[in-house]
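User: I've been trying to design a sequence by hand for this structure and keep getting stuck. Would you show me what you'd pick, starting by listing the structure so we're on the same page?

Assistant: Good idea, let's start from the same input. This is the structure you sent:
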């Protein structure tokens, strides 16, 4: 009979249960993935809040403030036209513009509660302006056709100013001359006011109050517009800063998750496959007729139980030979 050498096969398992090891591995991966998801949701909500504020609050408030300035200009234009032409249609136009300015400022106050004090101050200035204009209309007396000489005086004064500007600045560049002409054209309303005050000194006190009040409204609405556009820029910068921070944090956390997942992917199959390969070699030896097998077991779990069952199976199928007693044995370590 050929001499057979007893072979030892090590079946080492680091955990108590293969099922538990798999569950622990997946639990670790999910626990590490949780911060990535939470951070992504956090930055998403932060970006959404900033964008929503820009679109729904800051930009609309700035546009409304600009609109209020334009509406106030329309009210002043109607006021000056009435002073020159004495047509009641301009009184209605002035009233409509004032109503629009009031509604616009009320919308701004609803959008930007922090600007409530400024909008309230502007509304009070508009009410005072309206009272002064009504007093001006009452002081002018019965409306009707304006004296022709008043209109002629405004046009002559305005024509004289333009001619003087062209003759005096004939040596200036065309671009500069155009800019000064544009400025002079914009001052036509001022020329109307000056002519009316000169022809009717009783209106000077009302005109001065109206002028100062309207400038106050323009200053307040311009400040509202500038501050809201500044908020748009600040929110845009905050969004960019938050985006860069999110990219850095998510990149670092994602790299950690990838490395940990790679480690689990390499380690877990090795712990599972290596004892199975040893067990498969032992079964192959037994199938070839070599029943002198010894299992060196360490740990507990399904694979160790399987090795014990294989050892029992080999012991039962071993041919009854006096020289091959205890053909398969188990040596436990750390159990």
């Amino acid at each position: 009979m050929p001499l057979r050498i007893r072979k030892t096969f090590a079946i080492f398992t680091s955990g108590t249960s293969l099922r538990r090891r798999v569950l622990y591995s997946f639990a670790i991966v999910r626990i590490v993935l949780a911060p990535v998801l939470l951070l992504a949701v956090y930055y998403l909500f932060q970006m959404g809040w900033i964008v929503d504020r820009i679109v729904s609050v800051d930009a609309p408030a700035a546009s409304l403030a600009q609109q209020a300035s334009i509406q106030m200009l329309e009210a002043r234009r109607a006021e000056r036209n009435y002073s020159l032409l004495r047509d009641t249609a301009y009184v209605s136009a002035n009233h409509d513009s004032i109503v629009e300015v009031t509604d616009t400022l009320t919308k701004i106050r609803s959008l930007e509660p922090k600007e409530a004090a400024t909008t309230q101050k502007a509304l009070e200035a508009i009410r005072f302006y309206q009272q002064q204009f009504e007093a001006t209309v009452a002081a002018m007396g019965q409306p009707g056709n304006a004296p022709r000489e008043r209109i002629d005086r405004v046009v002559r004064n305005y024509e004289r100013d333009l001619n003087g500007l062209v003759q005096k600045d004939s040596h200036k560049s065309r671009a500069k001359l155009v800019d000064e002409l544009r400025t002079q054209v914009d001052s036509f309303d001022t020329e109307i006011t000056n002519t009316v005050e000169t022809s009717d000194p009783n209106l000077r006190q009302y005109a001065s109050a109206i002028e100062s009040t309207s400038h106050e409204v323009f200053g307040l609405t311009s400040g509202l517009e500038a501050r809201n556009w500044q908020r748009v820029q600040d929110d845009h910068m905050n969004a960019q800063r938050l985006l860069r921070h999110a990219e850095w944090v998510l990149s670092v956390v994602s790299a950690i998750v990838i490395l940990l997942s790679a480690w689990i992917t390499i380690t877990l199959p090795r712990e599972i496959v290596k004892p199975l390969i040893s067990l498969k070699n032992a079964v192959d030896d037994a199938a070839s007729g070599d029943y002198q097998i010894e299992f060196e077991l360490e740990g507990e779990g399904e694979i160790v139980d399987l090795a014990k069952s294989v050892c029992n199976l080999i012991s039962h199928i071993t041919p009854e030979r006096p020289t091959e007693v205890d053909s398969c044995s188990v040596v436990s370590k750390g159990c």
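That's my pick for every position. To get oriented when you compare it with your attempt: The two ends are 37 Å apart (CA to CA). The helical segments are 18-85, 88-111, 116-140, 148-168, 174-186, 188-199, 204-287, 302-317.
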